[in-house]
Design brief:
333 residues, Rossmann fold, UDP-galactose 4-epimerase, domain 1, two-stranded parallel ribbon
């Protein structure tokens, strides 16, 4: 099976690349060739995925069983892909987001039929627009789309609610004995999924003709509350957890008032309320799929990865200013 990943070296896609190669897939990456992450065994096509002429040039003579776009965020991205790949692939997989699901939820158990609506986060609304365009193309023109919605999948990132993502800021604060913020009372439920586990379900969808026209989320079945999540982070960092609980409203309003950042999407648009994912559908289409890496083990792997190379341990001073600004306004600094 010949597969093209647009992207392919990121937080989610790297492990999906490694597993594809292990399973004998003839894997191509299309990217700008500047990522420091290299995946031996992948054939790389160098182009700017936003430039139609470059795309058509590097793709000349190629057709693929599956094309996956890991880095499409805007309607223009999928419109361009539909133009370029129509007739050149048997399956096009769009990586959407589970934050597209209804916010706030009318029911805490999330299935693929949960409505898509997010008034808090433009990122999610753009992903919904992309999904709508692709499904319209499937219904009207037979464009062979499959939609995948990851939720808080981690590997080379620190999966905090606020204060870190690709940077090491939050772990650095913990190790220095500084306070961090947990939104609400920390009792709402959340799901963390390691990229290795995500890849198991994802690879099973590649070339799966029954998956055409369908949407899937792929997550762990483990539900933890945010107090447990942050405690696991602190334990993995070898640090004491010094957490201050602040309501999501106060966090978002204060960050906005002090011009420290827009947190409405990350919290009310994603992580403020309990979410429990029903993974029945992905298990039906990919028999044997099960996530096996608990967060307490997965976050250890992530922090060890950062610790293995000091260059990776980037401190985002903007995140420090945001956390300290909110803490000071709340009377905790």
């Amino acid at each position: 099976m010949k597969v093209l990943y647009i992207g392919g070296t990121g937080n989610i896609s790297k492990e999906s690349s490694l597993l594809a190669l292990q399973q004998g897939i003839d894997l191509y990456h299309l990217n700008r060739g500047i990522s420091p992450v290299k995946v031996p065994g992948v054939k790389t096509l160098v182009a700017d995925h936003k430039d139609v002429n470059q795309l058509k040039g590097v793709l000349e003579g190629h057709s693929f069983d599956v094309v996956v776009n890991f880095i499409a965020y805007l309607p223009d991205d999928v419109l361009r892909d539909m133009t370029v790949f129509h007739g050149k692939t048997k399956q096009y997989i769009f990586i959407s987001t589970a934050s597209a699901y209804q916010k706030p939820l009318s029911h805490p158990i999330v299935t693929e039929s949960t409505p898509l609506a997010n008034p808090y986060w433009e990122y999610s609304r753009k992903k919904i627009e992309c999904e709508d365009l692709l499904m319209q193309a499937y219904r009207q023109k037979g464009f062979p789309v499959t939609i995948v919605r990851p939720s808080h999948t981690y590997d080379m990132v620190i999966p905090a609610a606020i204060g870190s993502w690709t940077d090491f800021t939050l772990i650095d604060r913990m190790r220095k004995g500084k306070k961090i913020i947990i939104h609400g009372d920390g009792s709402s439920l959340w799901t963390m999924t390691h990229a290795i586990d995500f890849a198991k379900g994802f690879i099973g969808l590649l070339g799966n003709i029954q998956a055409i026209g369908h949407s899937f989320h792929i997550t762990s079945d483990e539900s933890l509350n945010w107090n447990q999540i942050y405690q696991a982070m602190a334990d993995a960092a070898g640090a004491e957890l010094k957490a201050v609980h602040i309501s999501s409203d106060y966090i978002c309003q204060t960050a906005e008032r002090l011009q420290l950042g827009d947190l409405w999407g990350q919290l009310h648009g994603d992580k403020a309320s309990s979410v429990i994912f029903d993974n029945t559908k992905i298990k039906r289409f990919v028999p044997g799929y099960v996530a096996t890496i608990p967060f307490v083990e997965g976050i250890k792997k992530t922090i060890q990865w950062y610790d293995a190379d000091p260059v990776r341990k980037v401190i985002n001073e903007g995140n420090n200013r945001m956390l300290d600004g909110i803490l000071k306004a709340y009377g905790e600094l």
